[in-house]
Amino acid sequence: MRDGPRPTSFYALAAVFGLFVAFLYGPLLAIVLLSFQGPDGGLTFPMVGWSTHWFAALFEQQRVGDFKGSFLRSLGLGLTVMTLTVTISLAAGLAFRKRFVGSAIVFYLAVASLIVPSILVSLGVGLLFRVLDWETAWWTSGVGAHLTWTLPFGLLIMFAVFNRFSKSYEEAAHDMGANSWQTLRHVVVPIIAPSLVGVALFGFTLSYDEFARSLLTVGTHNTLPLEIYGMTTNITSPALYALGTVTTVFSFLVILGALAAVTIVQRRRERRAPAPAGQRG
Question: Which fold has domain 62-272?
Fold first, then answer.
């Protein structure tokens, strides 16, 4: 049976979606193309030859800035924040399964930073470290400032997960002799593993791309977003486009890695799941 003609609204929505995709990825495609300009190429079309000259220029610190150092700092900061976000969010999700005195206040304080302008958080953390005469660096004040951004998202995800989590799994594990740690490690964590991967992805990407909360908290050595901003004021070559291409590819690889991790976890869960009663030998 063939479907009837599609309504006009379908084509209108398809056109709007197509325009959105073009608006979103069109400039990105232009940046990728211009990053392959020849050595004599400029910042605009038409292109003057094709080469990878500007990608090699990224690693010449005296020309385009400290790309390698800023990338490693952002990577280290992102991984640190990701680890802390997953650990604290999981612990908080487990703790909030049982109501305690002041739990509502703690929850609202935890998510309040989402409505505070990021630049004010950066200013406050930076001033606090200066008043206490502590060193501002990415591994100290930078981590703290970024956690005010990533933790609320991790908490909200974990709260939603545990609100739907059946305690019968844990009760069955206890009936079989497992202690609390064994139940957490072998029962709870494998079941919520895809959600933990999602929290990890949130934690890393939000930290890796954060600009405002890094501005006054990472000290004298820039993270990658700050380095890119500084490069826009003194770089007038396609090296800036090459940097955009490299960072975009890296971001897509992180997302693909997270999707691959979720797929692996789900397949392992399917292999470990017991067969239906009718299929057992």
Answer: MetI-like fold (1.10.3720)
